[in-house]
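Name: ABC transporter permease subunit
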Amino acid sequence: MKEFTWKNKIQGIIACIVLIILWEIIAIKMNNEIYLPRVENVLFSIKEILVKDDFFKNILFSLSRTLISFLIALILAIVFGVLSLMYPVFKSFLKPLNSIGKTIPTMVLIVLALIWFKKEEAPFIVSFFIVFPILYEGVISSINNINKELMDMCKVYKISTWQKVKKIYMPVIGFYITGILMSTFSLAFKVIIAGEVYGEPKYGVGSSIQVEKMNFNTNAIFAWVIIIAILSVSFDLLNKLVIKKVYRWKHEDRN
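Structure predicted for ABC transporter permease subunit:
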């Protein structure tokens, strides 16, 4: 298994190197920095962005917007997920809203959010409507997968609703949320950036990208894309670490 994992990692590294070489060759052939900048110029732009005074501000503002919208979506997903199980009317009420969130393109949501709300609020709204349906449906699915015999036992022993929520529903939901925590957070982060590009708040990664776009600075845009990709990979690695810690008992059981 470890050998297979290392083989995949080596193949991934080789694929990245090949893509970078192809990128450099095509950029040299095109000889047009606006359409496709050269690799070394993008790396220099990354260095310039990292040393700017507002770099960490832009990152922190984008991450804080992501965290706030994600936490609101998560809390409401759990609350409405449990209520939907106990009172089906909530499930019927939320079904069309979830369908809207899943089917409407992100760009359309951003445009509508900019019309209806202030530009600082738009990224929060869009991120919430994208992430909430994923979390909500996951909560519903995880609760529905609870052993029916366990639920029948709760009825026999007349376990209170609060105790069922506390001792059964919340642990099950917690295991589910752990599995998709960072992947969903990463999605929210990308949506927030897209909202910032159009909303242009004072600070944010998306706002910086929009400024570079207006200046036709493709080098800096590519540099920001790489920075965002590194952050997304970091979220994924953190998610794997969290899952490994939470599900450690599974690995121990296999050994």
